[in-house]
From TrEMBL:
Residues 1-45 form the F-box domain. SUPFAM superfamilies: F-box domain, RNI-like. Pfam families: F-box-like. This is F-box domain-containing protein. Gene3D superfamilies: Ribonuclease Inhibitor. SMART domains: FBOX. It comes from the Eukaryota. InterPro entries: F-box-like_dom_sf, F-box_dom, LRR_dom_sf.
């Protein structure tokens, strides 16, 4: 059968396994293949740094863009004028707009703020919208989303420097949430909530026509605010909004990336969630459990959940730091009772918890946003470790993870000949099992698992404490590092005390990607 006769679905599936250079080669094979593969060549444009601009500014590239720009579905760009030019030059049906590193290159605060709004108004098919910097006219931006992006599923507005976030009233955010597109699944916003004395000085007319209205949000799962918080919890989640989003489980308020857990588990916001959904979200601290047995900790977790006095009691945060006896029974209790609503989990110092326990949690805790299983100065050798053989048994359910701190081990590394003390590793040691390529096969599967966590902002695979880890990921392109290229939200990658092989080429790839 000729390639042209294959169903489009088959060609699309094949395209998932090919990279940009592959498409470029395929389009040059014949006129028939040029017609088949050109749309895949142009479907996603990546301009992550200004030095990537030159190939797009040649007369030949401009002519080709004008001819084939209608195939573009995703823009990942660091250059705002280029994004505008592509949008104005072509009849584009954009699904993804990812404006990268705006604090350095985009200039949303410059003299042409209308450009962003023109782009959004021309993109009614947009599904994913990510900005690395808050627009100066924040309320106008939110209003534009409501009015022009009816298919939006992912909204991610960050400000890594936390330096130029415009102030917003509680009522502004509350009105936006209530009227966000009905298709929305994930909302993360950098915010600076106003102080009460600033209220009369803020003029925000854009959303006034939506006050008091609410849209159903059947798919909304995550709402996260990150930035500068006031002393009191902002009143942005109304009861009507919470009722409109029955799948909303992960609600976060972060003070410059640090969760303010008590805002969700006590006080005004907790009571609002309770009235709207009958769910009482709770926080468990390890301070009173550190001497408990594994069975007793498990019973405490299990007993803390359930229906009581017409309330559905669920754990929102479990901090088991230092509970050295927490092991299989505890992890099973987490799996049995915390598949929903559990957002934060800390198992630092849980020395009885083994690799299978961690894997069971990761494949069950659907709404987990933060998992900390790292070593600390106090718990250098008593933290659970995830082994490759367990990690690869099944895929993880925690697709919304924002922060992951975990040590992945059990990876054969025949390329390492000496331990951290300079002593030769003897033949027959598990480190020497198999060949380099067999090790790479295992590592690539691990990278794929990690690479599926597209909302990760902080990934710590190493540690600042303890011995140097030998049976770890080598973190090289040769071993499959490029499978992490989907982690576009990643701000921090920790590889401390890992015997990695990162060299100049790997570092350059990280910088480019």
């Amino acid at each position: 059968m000729a390639t042209a006769q294959l169903p489009t679905e088959v060609l699309d599936h094949v395209a998932n396994f090919l990279a940009l250079p592959d498409f470029a080669s395929l389009t040059r094979v014949s006129k028939e293949w040029h017609q088949i593969w050109t749309r895949h060549l142009w479907r996603s444009i990546h301009i992550r740094h200004d030095d990537h601009l030159d190939p797009f500014n040649t007369p030949e590239a401009t002519k080709s863009r004008l001819q084939h720009g209608n195939y573009i579905r995703a823009l990942h760009v660091c250059n705002f004028p280029m994004a505008e030019q592509i949008m104005l030059d072509t009849n584009i049906h954009l699904h993804t707009l990812d404006l990268l590193d705006t604090s350095r290159t985009l200039g949303l605060y410059d003299s042409q703020p209308d450009i962003l709004f023109h782009i959004l108004q021309r993109s009614p098919s947009l599904v994913t919208l990510k900005l690395a910097e808050c627009p100066l006219e924040y309320e106008r931006f939110l209003c534009t989303i409501i009015e022009y992006l009816p298919r939006l599923k992912i909204l991610d507005v960050l400000d890594a420097e936390m330096g130029q976030i415009p102030k917003l009233k509680d009522e502004t955010v509350k009105t936006f949430l209530a009227n966000a597109p009905s298709t929305i699944e994930y909302i993360q916003m950098a915010v600076l909530f106003h102080d009460s004395e600033d209220l009369n000085d803020m003029v925000e007319p854009w959303l006034s026509k939506y006050h008091g209205k609410t849209t159903d949000h059947p798919a909304l799962t995550v709402v996260s605010f990150n930035g500068h918080m006031s002393d009191e919890v902002p009143l942005v989640l109304s009861e009507d909004f919470l009722r409109s989003a029955p799948q909303l489980k992960a609600i976060e308020f972060l003070q410059e990336n640090a969760p303010i857990t008590e805002w969700v588990t006590s006080g005004t916001l907790h009571d609002t969630i309770l009235r709207a959904t009958s769910r009482s979200l709770k926080m468990l601290s390890s301070s009173g459990l550190r001497t408990f047995s594994d069975k007793d900790i498990a019973q405490h977790i299990t007993a803390g959940q359930g229906i009581r006095d017409d309330q559905i009691r669920r754990w929102y945060s479990l901090n088991l730091e230092g509970c050295k006896h927490a092991g299989p029974a505890t992890s099973q209790a987490i799996v049995n009772t915390c598949q929903h609503d559990l957002t934060e989990l800390t198992v630092v110092g849980c020395e009885a918890m083994v690799s299978q326990d961690l894997q069971a949690i990761l494949r069950s805790a659907v709404h987990l946003r933060s998992l900390d299983a790292s070593r600390t100065e106090e718990y250098t050798d008593s933290c659970p470790r995830l082994l490759a053989q367990d990690m690869l048994i099944s895929t993880w359910a925690c697709r919304w993870l924002r922060t992951l701190s975990i040590e992945v081990g059990g990876i054969p590394r025949p390329d390492i000949k000496e331990n951290q003390h300079g002593d030769p590793i003897p033949e027959g040691h598990p480190m020497y099992s198999g060949t380099d390529e067999e090790s790479y096969v295992i590592q690539r599967r691990i990278y794929r698992q990690l690479g599926s966590l597209v909302y990760l902002e902080e990934l710590y695979l190493g540690s600042s404490q303890g011995d140097i880890q030998l049976n770890c990921l080598s973190m090289t392109l040769e071993s499959g590092l490029d499978f992490l290229d989907g982690l576009q939200a990643l701000r921090v990658l920790g590889v401390g005390r890992m015997h990695h092989r990162i060299d100049t080429a790997d570092h350059d790839w990280m910088w480019r990607t």
